Amino acid sequence: MPPYHSISELSFPGTGACTHAAGPSEIECEVMRLFEQFRDPLLRYALSFGICMHDAEEVIQEVFLSLFRHLQLGRSRKNLRGWVFRVTHNLALKQRYANQGSRVRMNADETNMHEQSDPSPNPEEHLSNAQRRQRLLAVVNALGEAEQHCIRLRAEGLRYREIAEVLGISLGSVSVLLARSIERLIRADGR
Amino acid sequence: MLRDELHISDEELLQAVDGELGTRRAAQVQAHLAACWNCRARVTDIEAAIAGLVRAQRQTNQPKLPSADGPRALLRAELAELARQPAIHSAIHSVIHAWMRRTWINPARLTAISLAVAMSGLFGGLILFHRASHGLNGNTASLERGVLPESNLTPGATRAVSIGEVCSILHEQVVREVSDSVRKQVFEEYGIKNARSEDYEIDYLIAPGLGGTDYIQNLWPQPSWNVKWSSYVKDELEERLHQMVCSGDLDLPTAQREIASDWIAAYKKYFHTEAPPSRIGASVLPDLTQQSAGGNI
């Protein structure tokens, strides 16, 4: 099993600006490197809470500002990937609560759905692939909230232990929730 | 799902696919797969479902993500601003130290000042010790700060629950104690793992009686005494909200949202008061903000 990533283990492009004496501090550079690495996965995860793109972007900004403060205070650098996902999870939840009173909840997979053109050669295959895609996404949207979180986090590459930490549940629960979700996907696929 | 004892469970097959099994068990599963067509077919199903889901997600959400250029620039500017703050503080310290060096350059005077500082430190220490022995410990300020949870650690979490379910039992019957391991985890998360356990209660931000879950995102170490806005005050609010939800005076999502965003503001709103009654608030310590204004801390 691959170990958790610490900042020192991750390599990022564009670090030259950080070596300049008058440039940003080492911690700023580390945060920017992690931003490059995790911004898209975190944004996708934040959107899965049904918040709009603008709110999700704000959540991600706050996550990395919190990360900066976290590192500045000399707090633990162990598994920062899990840390940023956990803070994203918490802030996105908070944002969703804040939105509940003022807006109708949007479904991320509906509002943000922009389909790429399917490279399949013939119309029948194209239709069949599109139907399968819709079926699978519908299954994911119909899963319980904990199952959805598990499967989305796993799809972003998190290990079971990291998912457990993000969601505050046991390792065994992660395994059960994932297996149950996959089982439903298999059934929906008619296998 | 294959449940036959002769076969590997789906859960373990998924763990095997994900590389989450221990070395020994992984080898056993691999040996079984080499011999068992059923389980191998099941692994293929699992892999196909994962591949299908990944493709579906890639073809829907992925292209919609906006460019990171704007957020990147904004973050860089905000980080630079944050990074400057401690620098300003150290600059002020440098100026003060330089001024002191210029004004009090006489070594004898410096020694006298050092002695005075040491004595005042000792005296201050004795005062703190005295206050600690009477419950007014130096920890009070941090307790007072903890009356509201940190939103990034404890945003609140709810479960799907109907009004009927919420109102079918009394509020106090659904309040559950959290386990020692969760309690320890919450303390660690808040960086107070060495705090006295009697000073804090692990509280649900959104009470179970209002649909709150026992996920760690809904738990925080709330000062149980010695503060004006103690856990006992929040208990009263929870009961009031529960009654209002069940009598139809307040909808459940609003109750959840208000208690999660700022429970003290919710208390003031629903009890029409600026302060809790002294019988449930801290009896030994008035509002810190008022004390500070009086300069009596």
Please characterize this protein's 3D structure.
The complex is a heterodimer of chains A (191) and B (297). With 191 residues, chain A is mainly alpha-helical. Chain A folds into two domains: 1-112, Rna Polymerase Sigma Factor, Chain: A; 133-191, Arc Repressor Mutant, subunit A, CATH 1.10.10.10. Chain A has eight helices and no strands. Chain A has helices at 26-47, 53-72, 80-102, 108-111, 123-142, 145-155, 160-167, 171-188. The longest helix of chain A has 23 residues, at 80-102. Chain A is globular and about 55 Å long. The model of chain A is unreliable at 1-16 and 103-115 (pLDDT under 50). Chain B has 297 residues and is mainly α. Among the domains of chain B are: 10-59, no CATH class; 150-294, no CATH class. Chain B has twelve helices and two strands. Chain B has helices spanning 10-17, 23-35, 37-58, 69-103, 107-133, 140-145, 163-168, 180-189, 231-246, 252-261, 263-271, 288-294; strands at residues 200-204, 219-223. Chain B has a two-stranded antiparallel ribbon with strand order 1-2. In chain B, helix 2 (23-35) crosses helix 3 (37-58), helix 9 (231-246) packs across helix 11 and helix 10 packs across helix 11. The longest helix of chain B has 35 residues, at 69-103. The radius of gyration of chain B is 29 Å and the shape is extended.
